[in-house]
Amino acid sequence: MPALDDKTPPRPHARKAHSVLVTGATGFLGRHVLTAIRALEPDTHICALVRNPAEWHAMDWTEALGQVDLIEGGVTGDDAWTRDPRLNGLGGIVHLAAVVRHARHNPQDIYDTNIGGLLRMVRLAGKHACRIVFVSTSGTVACFNRPDKFALEDAPYVDQTVRNWPYYDSKIQAEKQARMLAAELGVSLTVMRPPVLLGPGDHKFRSTGHVIKHLRRQFPFLIHGGMHFVDVRDVAAAIVRALRHPAARPVYHLGGTATSIEAFFRMVQDVSGVPAPTRVVPQALAWALAAAAQATAERLPGQPKSPFPDPVVIEMASHWWAIHSRYAEAELGYISRPPFQTLADTVTWLRAHHPGLRP
User: What CATH number corresponds to the domain at position 47?
Assistant: First the structure.
């Protein structure tokens, strides 16, 4: 089924008080969204949904944000926090919280959080009559067997391609169910679809994990396939602009640089000086090695971590990912900065902050 009818007109949105709730606030993208809010709307009242306030206070970047009201809770589980009086007059929700794990084992928390969590936030937006901006992924519509294809905002979902990859499957289901619920409740829902996020400030070292492995020379091999990445700072600014746009569209694609895996690591080599892996193996062999390593790890727990990724990662890496947008530049001022700038800033920040990369 189509992801969205391209002829769907933007939905008018009356701007309310400068107040916003951000979920996933302690993550990589959350950090940059909060920074973008402060830069673009200095007077906005920010509420951050956090499971552990102590974690928030322990991070060195949070103090620079100024006053942020911490709402203790999560997008699943007890919903008592949704009645917090500090949310009264809420003017918008930015929903970033998600479980990002590329594996097939024990997927229930992926579905519970990525679907159920979003539906809870749509209901909260309905309660406060405010817009919700949901950050999904380009992988809901842009996963191909060829490098010459790309997806626009009205592209169909790639249900069959990603049905055995719980993360992407959950995001497709989340988009579909949230769109239906938002229509039922009269909620203004805008979905943002970025590809892989890179840039400085990945304090949990998750989104930049493949760059870290490159810098530590931990890749045993590469395979033929595609890579699409974008700067987290550009995505964050577009999210804030979409939240406040008077007639934001239902979907925006936030594209960056789409390339091959081999070309991507050559770019990382150019900005870091660390040689890119030269061994490229067939996808079938890579998958067999990864599956064997996973089976061994399950049979012999406590062994050193395998250098091979989960088989799901091998399956994903053998595909190609590319999105374009009809609207993001004109309506949100979205422009992806040059890829070498993003990669250079990523490498510089990681070398200064990752314990395994410091001089």
Answer: 3.40.50.720
